[in-house]
Design goal:
65% helix; mainly alpha
Length: 530
């Protein structure tokens, strides 16, 4: 009997070490996959005008007052559409351009991969392990959210949005724990300061700072509701989060446009062109279960709602008490909102999966204390465990991107995909012969022209939020050679056309006597007006 008693602790310790090793291996493999996917997706067409705008800002030391690329916008202003030109993500553009100057493209992808794994793996792990939940359940949840991030592993400004969102949720989860413990008696001015700094960065990096403010105010109202329901004085946590939301809102005027940035928000977020953007397309149920890249998100949703259902069935009385708490009820509502938005557009699917991890962990967490005798529990409560995880997964993500680059085609901007092979030779011809006249091409190639030509005047590019439906309608009529396309083309005084093979405009222009072919290859054909 004594021998059995001595053997059991040894077996438990071995099992704990083995389980920790398996979890770490899975996180490392996930980090490598994120790095590989980041390299595979690389730089989409948006990166072209992002880099060129960043160059303009760095060269001139100021933001451009008018669109530096599109002649169609100038025509729109002349015909009664005086919408202001707002560089709402100028800091991202400057950061990307400086990285473009200082690093190789593979190194930039590696850095982006590191930010992705910090946002979707290490920060959620560090934050959510503080709650009393099953470790295997939590790690499975984080892995599924990390795989869902593969839907949007591009080198784009949204990488900063994910990172700031993860940091903000880490802060709010900390406040939630402090609220349950009733520990803080004074307002957390340091926490408020961090919130303000994050929002100042956010409002200069991308227009999604509005989402971060909404999250802050959501939590402010929830903490206040918790105080009111329990008929007690407003807690220090409630005051901290509310003041953080108010000061952060005021701090968003710390940008080149001041309060005018807020007036641009509706134009950008509710652009009539949104339905034409691929990342804003709805996700159907059939797509969710048939496309392999969406399977992780489908599994995440199944696990989320199954976990909620099981927690209610196993302990219905405790669940009923929990749902009387605004904090717990808000988590359930937040999860539902994230699910609805995730189906609404791919852009919201990724950030929604991250928020589900944080909110579901808070919702399912038990209020009972757990024993710290288990070796696995002790490992995850040590500070160096998190540090080792953060350093290791960052390294693995960077190595994943770098390793995948060997033996693969050279990384270029923009990175080609199934539906788009960049016509670099055609753009190279323009580099030698184009004299700066009005150039018409499709929006993806237009970005290449903006990046590689010293000066260019294009019709539209991939900045859909900057154009109205009239301009985009004219663009499609020309591109698809619809009725009156020639009159529209002449109306915009177009002098050059770069068309990809099989685009209708390429065939239509060949029969026009006032246009001649000056260049062609297997990917594109270039016309010049005689």
């Amino acid at each position: 009997m004594d021998q059995i008693d001595r053997t059991l602790p040894s077996a438990n310790k071995l099992w704990s070490i083995l389980s920790i090793a398996v979890v770490l291996l899975l996180f490392y493999l996930l980090a490598v996959r994120i790095g590989v996917v980041c390299f595979t997706y690389g730089f989409n067409g948006d990166c072209c005008w992002l880099l060129r705008t960043g160059k303009i800002i760095c060269d001139t030391g100021s933001l451009p007052l008018q669109d530096p690329f599109s002649f169609a916008l100038e025509y729109a202003r002349q015909h009664g559409d005086p919408r202001p030109y707002t560089v709402y993500q100028w800091l991202s553009e400057v950061i990307f351009y400086q990285a473009y100057r200082c690093f190789s493209l593979v190194q930039i992808v590696a850095l982006a991969s590191v930010i992705y794994v910090l946002s979707f793996i290490t920060i959620p792990v560090r934050s959510c392990l503080r709650f009393n939940v099953s470790r295997p359940w939590l790690f499975s949840l984080i892995i599924l959210a990390g795989l869902t991030s593969n839907l949007r592993n591009f080198v784009r400004p949204e990488v900063f949005t994910y990172f700031i969102t993860a940091l903000l949720m880490y802060l709010l989860q900390s406040m939630r724990l402090k609220y349950d413990e009733g520990t803080p008696t004074n307002i957390g001015w340091r926490t408020i300061g961090v919130m303000v700094v994050l929002l100042v960065l956010s409002c200069n990096l991308h227009i999604t700072f509005v989402v971060h403010l909404l999250i802050l105010f959501w939590y402010s109202l929830v903490f206040l509701a918790e105080d009111l329901i329990h008929k007690r004085e407003i807690s220090a946590v409630s005051k901290t989060v509310l003041l953080g939301a108010l000061f952060s809102t005021a701090a968003t005027i710390i940008n080149p446009y001041g309060i005018r940035l807020w007036f641009a928000v509706p134009q950008i977020l509710f652009s009539p062109m949104a339905p034409y953007v691929v990342e804003m397309q709805k996700i159907s149920m059939s797509l969710l279960v048939s496309e392999p890249i969406f399977l992780a998100y489908a599994a995440l949703l199944i696990m989320t709602y199954l976990s909620i259902a099981i927690s209610i069935m196993l302990k219905p009385e405790e669940a009923l008490r929990n749902f009387r708490s605004p904090l717990r009820l808000s988590s359930l509502l937040f999860i539902f909102i994230c699910t609805v938005l995730g189906f609404h557009a791919v852009r919201y699917t990724v950030i929604g999966s991250m928020l589900i991890v944080f909110e579901l962990t808070s919702l399912i967490a038990s209020r009972q204390k757990v024993s710290e005798q288990d070796n696995g529990e002790q490992f995850w409560k040590r500070k160096y465990s998190f540090l080792a995880l953060e350093v290791a997964v960052s390294l693995f993500a960077a190595l994943g991107a770098a390793y995948w680059s060997f033996g693969r085609p050279q990384l270029v901007i923009p990175t080609g995909h199934v539906d788009f092979i960049p016509p670099f030779k055609g753009v190279g011809y323009l580099l030698e012969h184009y004299d700066g006249g009005h150039l018409f091409t499709d929006n993806e190639v237009a970005g290449m022209c903006e990046l590689y030509l010293p000066k260019c005047s294009i019709f539209v590019d991939t900045r859909f939020d900057g154009y109205d439906t009239l301009i985009y309608g004219d663009y499609l009529k020309i591109l698809l050679a619809k009725p009156n396309w020639k009159e529209i083309l002449n109306g915009y005084k177009v002098e050059w056309v770069l068309a990809r093979r099989k685009q209708p405009i390429a065939d239509a222009l060949q029969s026009q006597p006032d246009w001649k072919i000056v260049y062609e290859d297997r990917l594109c054909v270039i016309f010049r007006k005689i």
